[in-house]
Design brief:
Elements lengths: L1 H9 L33 E17 L7 E6 L2 E28 L2 E8 L2 E14 L6 H17 L2 E6 L2 E10 L3 E11 L19 E11 L4 E12 L12 E11 L4 E12 L10 H4 L11 E12 L5 E14 L1 E14 L3
Antiparallel strand pairs: 1-3, 1-15, 2-3, 3-4, 3-5, 4-7, 5-6, 7-8, 8-9, 9-10, 10-11, 11-12, 12-13, 13-14, 14-15
Helix pairs in contact: 1-2
Organism: Piscinibacterium candidicorallinum
InterPro entries: FApF
Keywords: Signal
Length: 345
């Protein structure tokens, strides 16, 4: 029974929230950027309030399929499929200050965000025979052993997420915009490596260069992209070092009027280097899920609409992004409602 439990714990590595790549997590809010990528921003202080809802009922392995592991028993080989549901809600207060301080023609700015996160993860493990010759007694025996594992990997948690600070330099005209920055993500989130669910992603830091580029065409079409590349330090609580990953948000909008824009937005999140994982001993596996040492990948695409007030002080947008071509993490749908306000006038 102990050997079965250890092997099946490895199958739980696809668990994780929609946010380091341990447990399939990525320290990024996919789809967070929007129409403001291609909109000029005047110097001033801005407050943003973002609400993200992520829901997934499908989990993918390294081949983009439902995670399945096998267990040999004296009565035949039993397959165990990973399923369940993941719901994550993030409320993100963010401040952005674009100054009049210039570096050439570019203006210096800085932004900071501290997410408040709630995650509800319910894991299901379903046993079935590898073929018709497998005894139902073997399936029932394995199912009885995996039920406690699924319960141990399930949970609900609310608390602070990981804070990001991003200084940047922004060049803008009426037709184009480009910006460069360097973000730092601090381990401010609630995190315990023994828990299956955490609102923080781990006791480590992330450093990410930023690049933004956009262009406004004649006729009302706007295109833009915001890209980052993340480097992670070692997680002091697990001695694991998550791999590097590339994340990009891209959008195409059509300006219906001075206030309304409609379009499509997508994102790509691609882990480029493998995690460096501490050795998993049977003792460690008995108290926590195994580390996910595979490469994480996710893409998303969907419609977006935005509204800007006549004086330009208020900006609101809404988007629905469906994930596809996912590996080593959940696959679901991201809903965003975002409001930005000019605070200093």
């Amino acid at each position: 029974m102990k050997k079965i439990a250890i092997a099946l714990t490895l199958a739980l590595s696809a668990t994780g929230a929609a946010h380091a790549t341990e447990r399939g997590q990525v320290r990024a809010l996919n789809g967070a950027a929007g129409a403001e990528i291609s909109s000029p921003q005047f110097p001033g202080l801005y407050g943003q309030f973002w609400l993200q809802q992520y829901s997934a009922d499908t989990f993918k392995d390294a081949n983009g399929k439902n995670p399945v592991t096998s267990q040999a028993t004296p009565l035949g080989t039993v397959l165990i499929e990973r399923g369940g549901k993941l719901d994550a809600t993030a409320f993100v207060p963010r401040l952005t200050w674009l100054t009049d301080t210039r570096f050439g023609e570019g203006k210096f700015g800085i932004s900071a965000a501290l997410p408040l996160v709630q995650i509800d993860q319910q894991v299901r493990l379903t046993a079935r025979g590898a073929d018709a010759s497998v005894s139902p007694a073997a399936v029932a025996s394995v199912q009885a052993q995996v039920n406690p594992l699924a319960a141990r990997a399930s949970g609900k948690q609310s608390g602070l997420g990981d804070m990001e600070v991003m200084p940047y330099i922004d060049w803008q005209t009426d037709t184009y915009r480009y910006a460069f920055g360097l973000g730092v993500v601090a381990p401010t989130g609630d995190y315990d490596p023994k828990r299956p669910v955490n609102t923080g992603t781990g006791n480590f830091w992330t450093f990410r260069p930023l690049a933004v580029g956009s262009y406004v065409f004649d006729g009302g079409i706007e295109m833009g992209v915001r890209a980052t590349y993340s480097f992670n330090t070692k997680n002091k609580d697990t001695n694991n070092k998550s791999g590097e990953y590339f994340a990009a948000d891209y959008s195409v909008h059509y300006k219906l009027s001075d206030s309304w824009k409609l379009g499509a937005q997508g994102f790509a999140n691609i882990q480029t280097t493998h995690d460096r994982c501490a050795a998993d001993t049977p003792q460690a596996l008995a108290t926590r899920p195994a580390n996910n040492c595979g490469l994480v990948r996710a893409y998303g695409l969907g419609p977006v609409g935005s509204w800007t007030s006549e004086d330009g002080r208020v900006f609101v947008d809404f988007k629905v992004l469906r994930e596809f071509a996912v590996q080593n993490r959940p696959q679901g749908t991201v809903f965003w409602l975002r409001a930005n306000f000019r605070l200093d006038q």
